[in-house]
Amino acid sequence: MIDGRALHFVFKVADRTLTAKFYREILGMKVLRHEEFSEGCEAACNGPYANRWSKTMIGYGPEDTHFVVELTYNYGITYYEQGNDFLGLTIQSSESLKRAAAANWPVKEHNGLKYVEAPGGYKFYIIDKPQPVDKDPVVKVALASSNLAKSIAYWNGLLSLKIFEKTDKSVLLGFSENQAKLELVDIGGPVNRAKAYGRIAFSCPYDQQPLIDKKIQEANGKILTPLISLDTPGKATVRVIILADPDDHEICFVDDESFRQLSQVDPNSDADLDKFIKSDKSRA
Q1: What are the backbone angles phi and psi of residue 30, rounded to the nearest 5°?
Q2: Alpha helices in 103-186 (DSSP H)
């Protein structure tokens, strides 16, 4: 068994200004930390780009207790083609719907569910109930599956996420009841990740990472980046392993001990993000 903790989902963003406005002013999230990097990530955290990039963690509370969003911005990249891989992130927050209406941000509906779209077309489904204060408002992330049985064998069988709900066309998985869940939905055809593809991240104890590595190798699964240490200037070094599921959804497992140090809320991050947005000449 893996003692996993759901951490965040990574989005590539092309318009940092409008994106920051959406998460802050529509969803009501807070910037938790902001980091700038002079060259591409060794674990392809920013995608297949060797350029300067930034990472902004944003959410409803500290990363120790909340599932958050990682906004990856590659300087000079102005567009990412969307695929059909990311289906939506669900949050409980009637307040977000009120803020969207007040700001004239379109609120749409799909199968009776209200949603708002982040810049780039990423869907955020909103449960129209007051935002909880005693738990994380983020409920689940939904990703596409081309073969639900294969997906379940991988996520439940290999990675040991528990099954919380299951239908013919979808499964809800997670490491524990009190964490954000992963929903996999059978779309009845191939999954196209295009250029905007993201990555879901979990943590686990340092000594369990080699066990994951061993399990995936024995199952002939994909390891995109073998165990590697990643540095963040002025912050903790973490060890990660990057996997891909049967539909090539990227999965990061980072060691929990170091990540808890790295992910401390930085009180200067909000101002730092604004400063780097203002000084960004790559979109000129």
Answers
A1: -115, 145
A2: 148-152
Q: Using CA atoms in the order 55, 59, 64, 70, what is the torsion angle rounded to 10 degrees? A: -30
CA dist., res. 209 & res. 30, Å (int): 30
On whether the CB atoms of residues 155 and 115 are closer than 8 A, the answer is no
Q: How far is CA 65 from the centre of its chain?
A: 15
Contact 237, 258 (CB under 8 A): yes
Percent composition of the chain: helix, strand, coil (DSSP 3-state, to 5): 20, 35, 40
The structure tokens listed for 275 are: 């400063």
Task: Report the alpha-carbon distance of residue 218 to residue 266 in Å, rounded.
Answer: 40
Sign of torsion, CA 33 35 40 42?
A: negative
Q: From CA 163, how far away is CA 214, in angstroms rounded?
A: 23
Distinct helix (H) and strand (E) counts, the chain: 6, 16
Query: Which residue type is seen at 51?
Result: N
pLDDT by 10s per residue, the chain, length 284: 899 999 999 999 999 999 999 999 999 999 999 999 999 998 899 999 999 999 999 999 999 999 999 999 999 999 999 999 999 999 999 999 999 999 999 999 998 999 999 999 999 999 999 999 999 999 999 999 999 999 999 999 999 999 999 999 999 999 999 999 999 999 999 999 999 999 999 999 999 999 999 999 999 999 999 999 998 878 889 999 999 999 999 999 999 999 999 999 999 999 999 999 999 987 65
Sheet strand arrangement including 181-186: 108-110, 113-117, 123-127, 86-92, 138-145, 181-186, 170-174, 162-166
